[in-house]
Amino acid sequence: MVRRCLLTFKPFRIFVVGIGFFSLCFLMTSLGGQFSAKRLTDSPFTVRTEVLGGVESRGVLRKISDMLEVIMKRMDSLSKLENVNDSRRLEELSSAINRIQPAGLVERIQAIAQNVSNMAVRVEQILKNSMAASRVVRDGTSGQCDVPRDPRFPDCPGKVDWMRARWTSDPCYAFYGVDGSDCSFLIYLSEVEWFCPPLTWRNHSSPPVLPKSPPKRQAAFRTDLSTLLDQVGTGKESLSFMKRRIRRLASQWATAAYRLDIKLHRRWREQKKILVHVGFLTEESGDVFSPKVLKGGPLGEMVQWADILTALYVLGHNLKISMSVKELQGFLGVPPGRGSCPLTGPLPFDLIYTDYHGLQQMKQHMGLSLKKHKCHIRVIDTFGTEPAYNHEEYATLHGYRTNWGYWNLNSRQYMTMFPHTPDNSFMGFVSEELNKTEKRSIQQNKVRNMAVVYGKEASMWKNQGKEKFLQILHRYMEVHGTVYYETQRPPEVPAFVKNHGLLPQQELQQLLRKAKLFIGFGFPYEGPAPLEAIANGCIYLQPKFHPPHSSLNHEFFRGKPTSREVSSQHPYAEQYIGRPHVMTVDYNNSDEFEAAVQEIMRLKVEPYLPYEYTCEGMLERVHAYIQHQEFCSPEAPFPPVNASRVWPGGPFTRLPNSMLLGWAGNSTALPCWPPLSALRLMVSAEGQSCVEACQSSDLVCEPAFFRFINNKEALSKLEIQCEVVELEMNHIFPAYSVTRGECGLQKETLLFSCAGFSAKYRRICPCRDFRKGQVALCRDCL
């Protein structure tokens, strides 16, 4: 037994001594941090809540000191155990312990602990007296901090009660000076937030000095992209992909900048301060995209973001790029904490481009400031957000609430990949543009019987019935695939398909330049690949959907903030490009499918790329948005009070040889973009949306014009007989019911909707013209 004690005694005692030193150092560090917390940048909250715990800290110190003393006494008693055989060992052990433990160590620890405890008491007393004195000077008498009952600020008492209970829930309150007193609550709620009236005893004689706005700077086109590449950063395969794309298209961006500069007559353009926060690539959002870049994962979003960054940079704007929440916080200058407090200074950016993930992150860290500054935000939204889903209250009451949407933005602040939702703005992306020599070479080297399948992931080849139409295709053409695999050929890919594996972009381009046909299986929806194939001289063959896919009948769209019906795998290619470059057929009809393949083999087509998907087209569009879209200034009411004097015959006039109405008089009399000269007013059929109604007349619905037609003057000029005119929150309005003679005008401007339709109503639709190859802009929009 004694021998066992001897074997374990030395390490055990060293362990106890170590624990003692560690505990003491930990407590000294904690208390030291408390004593030093009162710095200029620290808050009263930090000092008050930590130092007032001094009684508890002293108790802990005493307990640890007592515990150490008991343990050491126990060790001393153990050290006295000896017998004849082991006495020599005990003497050696005692000598060793004395060498390790200086004499009086326990007494020293106890003395230090007592000194620290006494110091905590003294500091606590000093702080209490100091804070009490400062409150007297700052707040005056206690009566001046009574909670006001002001009808202009009805929420003030409730907010004070909330602060009393929850002010420690977020350190940002202490950052703004809240210390637990009613006076600090009232100061915060009246000067940082706006729920309580200004306090009369506070010094309001001199207004706060606002920072002067810096002089406006000119935006000059840039062609050297090296600085942009440095800003994008490193460390992720997604960022590497984006940088490779930027480098590959650099010369085309430079040429496009030169052309646009000439088109704009080298006019002066204001340089904007722009933040780009790519939320879906942040670690906080999960970033499921980066690991799949080299495994056949979706690249469409990264293609678009790379092109957005390049367009903004080439246009000459002051660009900051954020790929993490920490960078976002630093760029915005948000107070430390959990986002409960607003920003007090001006937003340091004119525009912020982000996505839904980034928008959620901004809400978490900007708090109430997001509502104040959200007019500066542009949300990159692949599939679009319709107004009925965007309006939080309306969406909740009428079954349109989803995991996305409900942000109460102007619908044009959402920016889509394709121009499928006129309620939103069309951002787009670019495809590589070929010169005449390259086009001629492609036509000469096309392989008449070569087809490439659109589908990089093996799961895309599981489409039911694919074997049937692939066998038909195989009878006429050699079928190639680019399906990712690691070691073994994917079993989903038929044996007759020549699979190249996942190809780098340049090798894929070469493959497309040889192929005659690019064929889709029905998924993915609306990606960039079909446009790239068409630009390289392929004919794109895709399935027609019966019935159209939507959130009502297809899992992929369920939960997305849109009711849009997708008629094919790529509706833009079907509607805006069409034959002979695009063929949309029913894959379930073998005869129709085979006839399409036979026709494709006979056809000869040139490479084709719509202007809006060239570098110049995207620069032109983004430039127009930045210079003309304005969502922060309040819109003037319409019609104005003096409408009868400005437009004696009304603001609308019948267009020659047309059933449409146009704008009467001077289109520049009212500030609006697009200009009112582009307005074409019409009535839809029952059950028809304004999107469809405008398209039927080769026009596009323009949501910016709704406020000018949401009135009785428009109804009268359209010769609509209304027995009752209602003003209501309804995403169908303005509209009228023929059977009931009821007319409805829109009460909530955020619910103006091109997409809305109802079988009971005919919509009043504001349409506009558009430039060939640039559907986002009217003829006079640039």
From TrEMBL:
Catalytic activity: N(4)-{beta-D-GlcNAc-(1->2)-[beta-D-GlcNAc-(1->4)]-alpha-D-Man-(1->3)-[beta-D-GlcNAc-(1->2)-alpha-D-Man-(1->6)]-beta-D-Man-(1->4)-beta-D-GlcNAc-(1->4)-beta-D-GlcNAc}-L-asparaginyl-[protein] + UDP-N-acetyl-alpha-D-glucosamine = N(4)-{beta-D-GlcNAc-(1->2)-[beta-D-GlcNAc-(1->4)]-alpha-D-Man-(1->3)-[beta-D-GlcNAc-(1->2)-[beta-D-GlcNAc-(1->6)]-alpha-D-Man-(1->6)]-beta-D-Man-(1->4)-beta-D-GlcNAc-(1->4)-beta-D-GlcNAc}-L-asparaginyl-[protein] + UDP + H(+)
Localisation: Golgi apparatus membrane
Organism superkingdom: Eukaryota
Domain called Glycosyltransferase family 18 catalytic: residue spans: 172-767
Enzyme class at the top of the EC tree: transferase
Principal subcellular localization: Golgi
Example GO biological process: protein N-linked glycosylation
Any matching Pfam family: Glyco_transf_18
Family designation: Belongs to the glycosyltransferase 18 family.
The name this protein goes by in its record: alpha-1,6-mannosyl-glycoprotein 6-beta-N-acetylglucosaminyltransferase
Gene that this sequence comes from: MGAT5B
